[in-house]
Structures are given as C-alpha cells and as structure tokens.
Specification:
CATH architecture of the largest domain: 3-Layer(aba) Sandwich
Number of strands: 6
CATH class of the largest domain: Alpha Beta
Radius of gyration: 19 Å
Distance between the termini: 56 Å
Number of helices: 6
Strand content: 15-25%
Largest sheet: 4 strands, antiparallel
Strand order of the largest sheet: 2-1-3-4
C-alpha cells in the first residue's frame, strides 16, 4: 500500500528575478515499511520536501497524497489531525518547548490530541526509555546535551506510533560510540 506519494511537486520561493526553485517536479512514492533517505548538499530542497509532505507548507504546483488523499483538499482541522496522528516529525533544530521537561515534550502530541496527561506521560516515558533517556525524563531541554534533545525529539515523533516519520537530519546530534579496541589503543598511546 502506498503511504506517501508526490506528483510533479514543485516549490518556488519569491517571484521574478528573485525566484528560487527549491523543488522541481519531484515524484516520490513510499510504501508501508520502506525507509527512504533524501540526501544532498545544503540548500538542495531536502527540508522543503519534508515540509511539503508534512503539510507544513504549500506547494507551488504538483500534489502530495497521504494514504491516497490529496492534502491540498484538506481543511485546516484535517491537516492538523493528519500532522498530529499520522505523521511524526523530527525537526533539524528539535523544536522542544524550553519550559517542558523531556517527558512532557515527548508527550505533547498525545496531550494535544486529547489524551490524559497521565496516560500521555506514561507512553512518552516508555519511548524515552527506549532512547536511553529513562534517567533524564524530568530534565528541561537546556539541561540536556544536543544528542539528548534529539532523542527527546525522536521519542516525541514516535509516541503517536504514526504512519510515517519525517525526519530532518535525525541523527546529526546523536552521540556515537567508539569501539572498545579503539578506546584502549588511544589510552595506551598516552
């Protein structure tokens, strides 16, 4: 089953001589369970594509279909429900609320959708635990490293168990682990 499909998707910013074509007739089709990576240099339209698919911006021309439905025909309420229930977002700069702790940031989509605070927090805590953040659930974003903030953003995207995850640089700030042998060789070199 096709989950997301674009046809001749085009986005132009500005007009006349100042016009910049960010996307030019992009055709894309994804099925359930597929992993699709949109790669390219800075400024090539990767974020623009995600924003159009996620109904955060409108195309200049072409179409986006989610589960067979053209999102340009949806009302604002329908688009809000689509974004809240069917699409998970991981933004490049996290977009965490600075006044909410990790668990409340991760629970936010469920709370906005009417779930009780207690139930939403419980589910969010589960996702944060899966992300290795179980001991940091009560910390505010400014008390977390960039990698930890990104894990909170990932948990927030997954908490609704969406149809698709739209992730803009989702691993850019995640910590990497060096192999043990490499760590030993570096410390023995000192």
């Amino acid at each position: 089953m096709t989950i997301i499909e674009t046809a001749a998707l085009t986005k132009v910013y500005g007009r006349g001589e100042a016009a910049v074509t960010a996307l030019d007739h992009v055709n894309l089709s994804t099925k359930a369970g597929e992993f699709v990576a949109d790669m390219g240099p800075s400024g090539c339209g990767k974020s623009t594509l995600l924003h159009l698919i996620g109904a955060l911006d409108r195309a200049s021309s072409g179409s986006v279909r989610v589960e067979g439905r053209d999102i340009s025909t949806m009302s604002d309420d329908e688009l809000t429900a689509l974004r809240r229930r069917r699409l998970g977002f991981v933004f490049q700069f996290f977009n965490l609320s600075p006044v909410l702790n990790a668990v409340d940031n991760a629970a936010r989509p469920l709370v906005l959708d009417g779930r009780s605070q207690e139930s939403a927090r419980e589910k969010a805590a589960g996702w944060l635990g899966r992300m290795g953040m179980g001991t940091r659930v009560h910390h505010l974003p400014d008390q977390l490293s960039a990698g930890q903030q990104q894990r909170v953003a990932l948990a927030r995207a997954l908490v609704t168990e969406p149809l698709a995850i739209l992730a803009d640089e989702p691993t850019g700030n995640l910590d990497t682990r060096r192999p043990r042998a490499r760590r030993r060789s570096m410390s023995s070199a000192r």
